[in-house]
Write a structure and sequence with these properties.
107 residues; elongated
């Protein structure tokens, strides 16, 4: 019993002193995060019809598969769901799709 008490006291002292140690590194020694701007998406270059050039190129490249990168005056919305990290929403999504009956495809 006495050995257990001594061990707990020594452990508490060790934890106390370990947590209170001074970090001698100056604040400027900690590297900062990279603040370089990163852009993802269709790109920033546009053709004379104000269409992203990359979308025009992709549509031409994948035309034989029926892929669309530029909507031709159709009022549609395309939603995609990445179920890589499923957070309990799959059931709600499927229920909404069943209720609303939109055109859908699953991959």
């Amino acid at each position: 019993m006495r050995l257990k008490s001594i061990s707990l006291i020594l452990l508490a002292i060790l934890v106390l002193f370990t947590g209170c140690m001074n970090d001698s590194r100056p604040a400027n020694a900690i590297p900062s995060l990279d603040t370089t701007r990163q852009d993802w998406g269709q790109g920033v270059q546009f053709d004379n019809l104000n269409r992203p050039i990359s979308c025009v190129e992709f549509e031409e490249k994948y035309k034989k598969y029926g892929a669309k990168f530029i909507n031709k005056n159709e009022k549609t919305i395309t939603l995609t769901f990445d179920e890589g990290y499923e957070n309990g929403y799959t059931g709600q999504i499927l229920d909404t799709l069943k209720k609303r009956k939109p055109q859908q495809s699953f991959l």
